Amino acid sequence: MAGITWGGRVCFSTRTSLTWLPETAARPAREDVLTTQDVHSGGQGEALGHVFETKTYDDPVVLDPAIRTRWAFLETSSAAAVLRSVCPAEWADITHVLQTFSLDPKHWLKKGGNRGDVAKLIDGMFGERGWREIRVDLATQGVMLSKDGTEVERLPEVYQEGYLVDNFKGRVALDVEWNAKDGNLDRDLSAYRAWHEAGVISAAVLITQDRVALKQLAERVWAEHQVTLPKDKRNAKLPIDLGTSTTTNLEKAALRVRRGVMGTCPLLVVAATQATWNGEPYSAN
User: Fold this and answer.
1) Is residue 65 classed exposed, middle or buried when 0-12, 13-18 and 19+ CB atoms within 10 A define those classes?
2) Overall number of domains in the chain
3) N or C terminus of the chain: which is more exposed, having fewer CB within 10 Å?
């Protein structure tokens, strides 16, 4: 905003509203809007476009190596270390879920979109630990003060309605994006940026999947299942569409990270891989 002619200064105060909505409330429509070649471990960090990628999750003090080997990670602004240091209770919840959750083919290879069984199971695990689905709204008001601190004018409040974040606790926002339209990632990361700049959150976490790796695993698990069926019952086609590249996944998240969509907000992206699989065969029951 331009300076005030009387030599005053402009101060902006931001009020944040956290709205808890019942689980039965309608979820707002999510807008439709890499390969993972640059998402790997090793080194202290590397440039992703104009964003610097950090890898504090490779530090065994920050993250248990047993968890590290089961998931793929991507982070900015030392997100894992920030979460461990600034939000230890929430970090304990996150690592507990990552340690105990396993990808079961009977849930994973089942139709259901973003709110399918996998997302519901992960959300449920966080819900059991006190995380809640909430909407974060921001209200910003400009207050003009003279040089001596006297209030000169108070501008009308600007209210910005937010959206439902899957899981929120303390100062951490966490979304589970599983087979949703990849445009959701733009919305998620932009929201994290706004909330972080407003001081609402210290970091954000996004749980998704490594599409390429899981597609290969799904094809193998499904083929092994078909062999157990009578020939007239066999169907080579996967029950879910893992061929499309327009759904939320690690490589799509990496593209947004390279563009800096989340700004300076520490962001940890966690993706299920073949190592997240529980090793069980597919079962329709």
Assistant:
1) exposed
2) 1
3) C
